[in-house]
Amino acid sequence: MSSPETNRERPPEPERYKASRDELLDLYKQMLLIRRFEERAGQLYGLGLIGGFCHLYIGQEAIAVGLQSAMTVGKDSVITGYRDHGHMLAYGIDPKVIMAELTGRAAGISKGKGGSMHMFSVEHGFYGGHGIVGAQVPLGTGLAFKHSYAEDGGVCLTYLGDGAANQGQVYEAFNMAKLWRLPVIYAIENNQYAMGTSVARSHSEPDLYKRGESFRIPGIQVDGMDVLAVRGAAQVALDWVRGGKGPIILELKTYRYRGHSMSDPAKYRTREEVQEFRERNDPIGNAARDLAELGVGEDELKAIDKQIKDIVVEAAKFAEDTPLPDPSELHTDVLVGSD
Length: 339
Hints:
Layout: H1 21-46, H2 61-68, E1 77-79, H3 85-90, H4 95-102, H5 136-150, E2 156-161, H6 168-179, E3 184-190, H7 199-202, E4 219-223, H8 227-242, E5 248-253, H9 271-281, H10 283-293, H11 298-321
Parallel strand pairs: 1-2, 2-3, 3-5, 4-5
């Protein structure tokens, strides 16, 4: 009987990305766009202009921006769960068509029929937006298989949350991905509460980056509130996967400021806890401090905030003014015939 492998190759520990002034400004703008967009979406939901479920990304902006800024649109692919607006914005998709989708308008990226949880863009290699917890993980593994089979050099970034990390289908996908050495990065956004139960209470192994060890998939834990730490980890993960070494897991420790969805009062945590995260470890605040060290003044940051707010106001106006889908759209995109 052979002995277990003891000295497996592992990726190097990531270093914080050394961004230039212009690079960090761009990352800052992307995070601020997500923050202001999501704040506006929350307002529109309160006004009844967004129906159904709406899961906001406020507090987690550094993850989508840090990871996706290292990827190549059109070459790589991204798939995620239902907290998806921020991921789309981080991939450079027009805020107007995202907001139009949220409000169910014909100009929305899914023609107004997907709403908040089911956004999609083949052009950008963005494959959703999925409402079933963990269901995107085997699908993302399939996208990675497509990259491998086509030999196109692409990588699939597959997001999941800490709640999805306990799903059985996730581990079936891990096993296949490792057996076939698929080019996939599993990014676990650990915002510490899943729907409303803390990781400490619901996970026998709370360090989620270790969840691939039994499949010989290496994992790295990352400060998901620091966009430069995330960007540095993204480069390590991409180098590992593009080097033909198979899948990797990134656990990104983060925190969402709002409830699980807009209908969640979040009574399972204290206001003081949320306020402490906002004051001490906000991803946008962290980036602003780094920018200050690079010589970016407060006036410049205020001007950027006004510019971003104008973009979001324009997107909201577009969404409110554009028409609803024609009733005939109910019968399209349901089934593709064989003839």
